[in-house]
Amino acid sequence: MKKIGQLVMLLVCPLLTQAHGYWFEIEQPKAAIGEPVQIDLYYGEYASQIREVGDRLDKMKDIKVTVVTPNGEVEEIVMTQTNTKWTGTYTPKSEGYFQVLGLNDTREVQDWHKHKLGITRPIQYLRTGFSLGEKQTASDQLLYLDTFCKINSNNVELYAMKDGKPMNKTKIRVVNPEGWLQDKFSNQIGFVSVVPNKKGLYLAEVEWIEELPGTFKGKAYETIRHKCDMTFVIN
Fold first, then answer.
1. Where are the beta strands (DSSP E) in 93-194?
2. Cα(167)–Cα(188) distance, integer angstroms
3. Are 142 and 98 in contact (CB under 8 A)?
4. pTM over 0.85
């Protein structure tokens, strides 16, 4: 059995090393009304515990970060680049659940033949959130491609949505704090259930390739690659 486990890891690890992406982390040790909450944005391979540094983070400058308050107000967050991440703060003025969103729909067309995506226009969506007072993690769709969650006592409900509609038979990849991943496929209401096995930060990824050729910033593309990365914490 040990040899089988080692073989599985050898098969899985090459896949993990190819999955560069973006994710939010919230520094929330004592979140309270009037106290700033730190919002950090990273780039790397979460499954392999790789966080890129230096000028490799330059590409994140066009990611627009906003906070949606419990009463629906939207506030843009000023993010500052450091050597290890982009970071900003938000100061809540009430209790409730605060949704933190990211969007980059201005990135230039990319030649991603090496990723088997051809000439594509990438659009990136990001999501996380934090609670003050009564804990809440479920929300409605706010991004064009969106995944959000509800954390229960024994499982996590994940939902995948596109353009206001549930995504049926869509893969939702979940990565736990140690880098183990599992792929789930949504049902007709865009839902999957995941049972966490560790405390810490989890990453959920949803991707949709739109077969719609066009031109963006003077460059032709064959498809649009939509990607949503959502993080949630199991305490």
1. 96-104, 110-112, 118-132, 145-151, 156-162, 165-166, 171-175, 181-185, 191-194
2. 7
3. no
4. yes
